[in-house]
Write a structure and sequence with these properties.
With about 270 residues, the chain is α/β, with parallel strands linked by helices. The chain has one domain: Rossmann fold. It contains eleven helices and four strands. Strands 2-1-3-4 form a four-stranded parallel beta sheet, with helices on both faces. It is globular and about 65 Å long.
Length: about 270
């Protein structure tokens, strides 16, 4: 068993995150068709407005269909009955007899599957004519929009001081079957009325989200969502700054890299 597999036995929540990500398509279908929730595409970790308005924010790659390792599916099924804590204990027992290196196989499949899908989205973005000077991330995002963008009701776009990013947002309107674009322009901080402009832009975005969901987004809804966000940000900050910047990792660097990769996706839309 590899060092990374040893770490995963101690951090079974990594397997839980991996399963939730890889099975995101089924989760989103259930939300959209059974629970009649509206999906809102997002590409930056500002999903609070969508949640507060009663929608489900979605980082586009979650809508893709991934092949999930059969052993990971079995572990998730077991967790539904016994809880992830007991699954962790089982993995700790199994590692002594894991002659087939099942845990290594699960980890390898998760990494390969995610990397392959990102590369597929990158190639789709390039083939669809996105400018060649855009970075890997933007080309991949464009590919995600081409592939599954039609499944959302709208995209919630926050402009930032990156010309390539803002060009990418503009190109979304040229995609076939493009969805509604909700814009939140973030004004430069050195403008005297920056706060008032931002408040107005946020209010306009909320009104557009309310029109989509048919729900009123109250101050209490926003307050509740921002309280949740603050807790998430506090935990994320602890991992990013207190742990990753320290002289000691609770696991080997390769495992930490995979944890960060999964966390960064989860941090986008809190799913």
């Amino acid at each position: 068993m590899s060092v990374m597999a040893e770490d995963v036995v101690n951090f079974a929540s990594m397997l839980k995150m991996a399963y939730n990500f890889l099975s995101g398509n089924s989760y989103l279908k259930r939300k959209k068709f059974r629970e009649k929730k509206d999906l809102i595409g997002i590409a930056l970790p500002f999903s609070d407005l969508a949640f507060a308005a009663g929608a489900i924010p979605v980082f586009p790659i979650r809508m893709e269909i991934f092949e999930v390792n059969k052993y990971l599916v079995a572990l998730n099924s077991a967790s539904n009955f016994f809880g992830w804590g007991n699954v962790t204990k089982f993995l700790g027992f199994m590692k002594k007899y894991d002659n087939l290196n099942i845990i290594d196989k699960i980890i390898g499949d998760v990494i390969d599957t995610i990397n392959a899908k990102y590369n597929e989205m990158y190639e789709l973005g390039v083939e669809s004519g996105i400018p060649s000077d855009f970075c890997y991330g933007i080309k991949s995002l464009y590919g995600m929009q081409i592939s599954k963008g039609k499944n959302v009701e709208a995209n919630l776009n926050f402009t930032i001081r990156c010309s390539a990013w803002n060009k990418y947002l503009a190109t979304q309107q040229t995609i076939p079957k493009a969805r509604k674009q909700i814009w939140v322009d973030i004004p430069p901080r050195d403008i005297g009325s920056a706060i008032e402009i931002l408040k107005s832009n946020l209010s306009d975005a909320i009104r557009q989200l309310e029109d989509i969901t048919g729900r009123t987004c109250s101050d209490n809804d926003l307050r509740t969502q921002f309280q949740v966000r603050n807790k998430i940000c506090s935990l994320y900050k602890t991992i990013i700054y207190d742990i990753s910047a320290s002289d000691y990792y609770p696991c080997n660097p390769a495992t930490m890299a995979e944890i960060f990769a999964l966390l960064s996706i989860s941090f986008q839309d809190y799913n």
